[in-house]
């Protein structure tokens, strides 16, 4: 059954199921929760590169950028207050994810999404009409609460609704929506940068209300998952829903397994305490290290600060926004590679290939920037040289988009047993948000101090995390979510934690 730490597809018999139109559209609507996360990732970098925004809220940064004789390209945007504008959202999301765990468990996954949408909607309005930095950051905190609730509930919802053999494809819909949100934000930033006066950045920030409205309205009409209904004591509704989402009458075996998992879950009164028990050690380790490594790839350096980054390495204003737009397009199209392959080639293969690809690109980008700017940061990139940098960044983004991007959300959402699933997903989200916050807050300062070496640092992390996956992640492709325990029992390392 197990070979090299991987359970073969035949090791577990799938429950009878087909991909129904009902399930497809329910997962599509739920996945739109990723739009709010993606829109924010994309919009913040573009807004912070707009002169009207910088001059109003961060005049010191604006003056430094405009100094004719400021030759150090690495340090133009180094401002802790400016990075606080970006990173405050993720600190708020970290805290919110713990509260979202309780809401998701007690009220259901859909209401956690609904609450996230409403809060994000309020934050977008506050940001659009902001008059000072305090109001701006208050809006960002509300956006962060919305992101925390959505990111906690959406991946779990998708994994529970999807048939096992289609779980990867449907769950990656969340990452696809994140990439579409980033692309939409890049397009909007490019358009609003052409507007005169202070209206451009207000339009960019205010249009966050659109994805917020989509998930708010959509989640209101979503059905609950069978797992959530059983967990909350609605067995009859759960049986009806399971029959509908699987498209078959032969649901007795799956229903019995979910029911048994629910009964076991009811015996766990303190999921936050129990999750640290030895028998849950494999899942706990993965829920910490996968989101940690996902952020240490350096992807959010590109997505948060792509216009600022391209501007910093010598691009003009329009060129920097256009380059960010190009990376956004690559991000979307590459995600489709993962959608069409994740349930065929498996999670491990995509993780490993993507890691190697990202490592090579980080080394290439660091080397190209280092050759041109050295440690002094002096100089500008020629058009051809800058295009070469963009090419390697795009190859890097593509590698992330079909590996660590979607799989960083998929794998943690599918590996936890029901009794600790909400707590496990909260750990996943909180670790992700914590390191997103740290990197967002530290990047511009690190770029100023480490210069091109920073890209080698991220490359080192990519190498480490690729080795981690090769050694410790079993294949979860095609395994029913309630039978995931078999995967860990068959693994060469994790099996020792599951023996009596």
TrEMBL record:
InterPro entries: MFS_dom, MFS_STP/MST-like_plant, MFS_sugar_transport-like, MFS_trans_sf, STP/PLT_plant, Sugar/inositol_transpt, Sugar_transporter_CS. The chain crosses the membrane at residues 19-39, 81-99, 111-130, 136-158, 170-191, 203-222, 284-308, 320-342, 354-373, 385-405, 426-447, 453-473. SUPFAM superfamilies: MFS general substrate transporter. CDD domains: MFS_STP (cd17361). It is a multi-pass membrane protein. GO terms for molecular function: monosaccharide transmembrane transporter activity; symporter activity. Belongs to the major facilitator superfamily. Sugar transporter (TC 2.A.1.1) family. This is Sugar carrier protein C. It comes from Apostasia shenzhenica.
């Amino acid at each position: 059954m197990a070979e090299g730490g991987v359970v073969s597809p035949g090791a577990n018999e799938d429950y009878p199921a087909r991909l129904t139109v009902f399930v497809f559209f329910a997962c599509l609507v739920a996945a739109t929760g990723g739009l709010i996360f993606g829109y924010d990732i994309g919009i913040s970098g573009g807004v912070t590169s707009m002169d009207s925004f910088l001059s109003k809220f961060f005049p010191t940064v604006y003056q430094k950028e405009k100094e004719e004789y400021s030759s150090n390209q690495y340090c133009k945007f180094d401002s802790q207050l400016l990075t606080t504008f970006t990173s405050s959202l993720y600190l708020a999301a970290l805290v919110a994810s713990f509260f979202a765990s309780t809401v998701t468990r007690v009220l259901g996954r859909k209401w956690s999404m609904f609450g996230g949408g409403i809060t994000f909607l309020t934050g977008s309005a506050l940001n659009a009409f902001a008059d000072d930095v305090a109001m701006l950051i208050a809006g960002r905190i509300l956006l962060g609460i919305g992101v925390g609730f959505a990111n906690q509930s959406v991946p779990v919802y998708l994994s529970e609704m999807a048939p096992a053999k289609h779980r990867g494809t449907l769950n990656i819909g969340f990452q696809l929506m994140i990439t579409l949100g980033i692309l939409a934000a890049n397009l909007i930033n490019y358009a609003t940068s052409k507007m005169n006066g202070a209206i451009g950045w207000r339009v960019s920030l205010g249009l966050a209300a659109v994805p917020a409205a989509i998930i708010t309205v959509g989640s209101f009409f979503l059905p609950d998952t069978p797992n959530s209904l059983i967990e909350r004591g609605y067995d009859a509704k759960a049986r009806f829903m399971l029959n509908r989402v699987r498209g078959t009458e032969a649901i007795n075996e799956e229903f019995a397994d979910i029911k048994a998992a629910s009964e076991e879950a009811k015996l766990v009164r303190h999921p936050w305490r129990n999750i640290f028990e030895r028998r849950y050690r494999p899942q706990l380790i993965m829920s910490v290290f996968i989101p940690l490594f996902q952020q240490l790839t350096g992807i959010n350096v590109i997505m948060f600060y792509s216009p600022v980054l391209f501007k910093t390495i010598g691009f003009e204003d329009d060129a920097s926004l256009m380059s960010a737009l190009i990376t956004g397009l690559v991000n979307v199209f590459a995600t489709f590679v993962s959608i069409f392959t994740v349930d065929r080639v498996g999670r491990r293969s995509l993780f490993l290939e993507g890691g190697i690809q990202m490592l090579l690109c980080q080394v290439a980008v660091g080397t190209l920037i280092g050759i041109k700017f050295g440690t002094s940061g002096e100089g500008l990139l020629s058009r051809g040289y800058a295009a070469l940098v963009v090419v390697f960044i795009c190859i890097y983004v593509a590698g992330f988009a079909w590996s660590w991007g979607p799989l960083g959300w998929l794998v943690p959402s599918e590996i936890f047993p029901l009794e600790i699933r909400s707590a496990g997903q909260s750990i996943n989200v909180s670790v992700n948000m914590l390191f997103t916050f740290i990197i967002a807050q530290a990047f511009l300062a690190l770029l100023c101090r480490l210069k091109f070496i920073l890209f080698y640092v991220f490359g080192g992390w990519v190498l480490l995390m690729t080795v981690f996956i090769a050694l410790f992640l079993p294949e979860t492709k095609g395994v029913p979510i309630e039978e995931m325990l078999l995967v860990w029992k068959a693994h060469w390392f994790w099996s020792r934690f599951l023996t009596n």
